[in-house]
Amino acid sequence: MAKKLTTEEYLRGVDAKLRRIKEIDKEQTKIISSIHSMHAQRIFGDGLDGTSYSSKPTLAGGNVFGSRNRFGNSNYTFATKAGSDTFFGSGTGEWRRVNTPRGPRNLRVIPGGYRAIRQADGRRVDKVDLSHTGRLQSDFKSSLTKTRTGWVSGVKNDENVGKLEGAKKRYGQKLEVPDKVIDIHRPRLARLMAKFLTL
User: Fold this and answer.
1) pLDDT digit string (tens) for 12-49?
2) Among 10, 64, 66, 187, which residue carries the largest CB count within 10 Å?
3) Residue 166: how many CB atoms within 10 A of its CB?
4) H or E stretch including 151?
């Protein structure tokens, strides 16, 4: 016959289990954070395998990230002044007049498309990564949030929602956490689950 616990013994047991649950939760947070960090590195640093930037001619203004243009807004094409100067530093090149919500505007034809813009800014062009100015990257890295039903990541700033949605449409599953990242952490997750089930 099992020994009957006193109220104090029962409460001590509950307290010990709660402490172990908190420890498991902390360990889980470390694992999920590590997965998120590796995922972000792949998207913004290592690049997405089997992808390339468009070299289809595009239209662009010469505004540089962080500065206001003559229309009074901070829309930009280039991340660096050197990148802008590559196409806007001389009077040569083809121009097109286009209607914009703020009126007609002259834009430069960039023959090499977005690939040429990134190259002028000194960014990688061998395969796609989502880092140009670093704002989307910072937003994504800091977005990891625990909810009642699990963990979510994405972006929090409105300016980045369209960027991430556009990337999802273009690259689809290539933006998901790859199995090889999960596989690295699977043994730790399994041990954690075993600890939880034996509480």
Assistant:
1) 888 989 999 899 999 999 999 999 999 999 999 999 99
2) 64
3) 11
4) strand 151-152
